[in-house]
Design goal:
Bound molecules: 2-acetamido-2-deoxy-beta-D-glucopyranose
Strand content: 15-25%
Catalytic activity: Endohydrolysis of (1->4)-alpha-D-glucosidic linkages in polysaccharides containing three or more (1->4)-alpha-linked D-glucose units
EC number: 3.2.1.1
GO molecular function, one term: alpha-amylase activity
Number of helices: 15
Protein name: alpha-amylase
Helix content: 25-40%
Distance between the termini: 39 Å
Oligomer: single chain
Radius of gyration: 23 Å
Keywords: Calcium, Carbohydrate metabolism, Disulfide bond, Glycoprotein, Glycosidase, Hydrolase, Metal-binding, Signal
Amino acid sequence: MVLAQSFQFLPFVLLFITLATQSRAASPEQWRSRSIYQVMTDRFARTDGSTTASCASSSNGYCGGSWKGIENKLDYIKGMGFTAIWISPVIEQIPDNTYEGEAYHGYWPKNYYALNSNFGSAADLKSLVNAAHELGIYVMVDFVVNHYANWGDANIDWAGLTPLNSESYFHPKCWVDWSNQTSAEQCWMGDGYVPLMDVNTEDPNVVDILNNFARNLTATYGFDGARLDAAKSIRKDFWPAFVSATGVYSQGEAWFDDAASLCPYQDYMDGVHNYAMKTHATNSLSGSESMASLAAAMNDLVSQCKDVSLLGSFMENHDNARMASVSSDIAILKTAAALTILSGNGIPIVFYGQEQMLSGSSAPYNRQALWLTGYPTGPDTLYPYFTTLNTFRIHVSTSDNTFLTAKPSYSAPTNNVLSVRKGNTMMYISNEGSKAPSTTLTSTGWPLNTVVVDVLSCQKVTTDGKGNAAVKMSGGLPVVLGLESALVGSGLC
Ligand SMILES: *[C@@H]1O[C@H](CO)[C@@H](O)[C@H](O)[C@H]1NC(C)=O
Ligand SMILES: *[C@@H]1O[C@H](CO)[C@@H](O)[C@H](O)[C@H]1NC(C)=O
């Protein structure tokens, strides 16, 4: 989002830098076609390439993942068809081994102007971004500007924080009451062991400092996108100038499960993580919510959000239980994968390890070291499945330039099936898992007497003289239909 009106107050030189940055950087338009792989830097790959270095699934400490480690494994990410990565926050963290562990995740800042040396050097970070760019992969950095952290809530070392080195830059201590939005914005997250002191983002001096920091960090390392941590915990009208300062596409974390609360954030940033889909879909895939209810929630997003194609479509992340802890049924895990990539309600985001069906539940168990899997890419993993899904999405976007912006629509043709219609594609997913009986599903509105292909099973059907296609869904596995003519050259089926 570029807010032209914010420029008029800037001195000419700053204006020039801002425009120069924006002409280089990646816009929402450029991000729409991307597919993001979310990397937890400490847990993805080590500089030494080890596949045996210990990292207990219960570990709350640093395990040794690094920016060099990611750089050396970019081919693994690219091989699944991802065209962007989101990495952990890069800034310096509190060094302590607290009662709640270490800041390996990156959400306990101490110094915004220094890097987290556990992940490598400035040269390593620049090298990662350059290497990603050479492979056509964007890099999204995670901004944490809502708070700083401290080990203990007595005797906070305010002077030790950079650059907001005085208590006067912070809201007075009160613990967040999530039912009260003012409290969510002005009180403190965390607890007495690791309080997250809430930055006073109502103070104009603080706002200037944070905006300059955003401009500097993005430009210095050449980042292409900004993930906005705790977006719900800062007043909405703080964000437009911050987003403009980054000069890149932004996606915020506003943890709301309903369109009415979530969508308004899109007026202040380019996109938000699609928590409404994630929550309803997890409920549906675990049987506690009907597919009709999921379809309604998805349609609400389309009608209430400014542009659903710029949301973030995800089923796993660092704050939620892995899908393989919700269900061990491979059909359900494939369904979650297909929904992530082809929901139509956002830019796909796959959390590292979803392709290996890692099965941890709450943090830190959902943050296992990926290197302990040995990075297999074969049919026992979801790696080739993600490659197919991403390949299909890229191919239909390329062969039909209206696909990405086409409004999706959702319905529940049976109690256990959701249909997703978008442009000249159709997806069916089931919440019954492998035990689902075979069923024939008929969709309308296709070109007449034309071959459509399920790219996941390669079953082909010819539409009738009225544009109906009847396809078979078996074993609860997703069906993803596209026109055969649109798949030429894709290598699919
Ligand atoms: C960016 O921040 C670094 C400190 O992290 C500082 O050395 C540098 O001068 C800043 N650059 C600009 C253009 O403000
Ligand atoms: C909401 O939180 C704010 C900030 O802590 C507080 O001043 C206000 O009284 C709270 N409102 C209610 C209704 O509790």
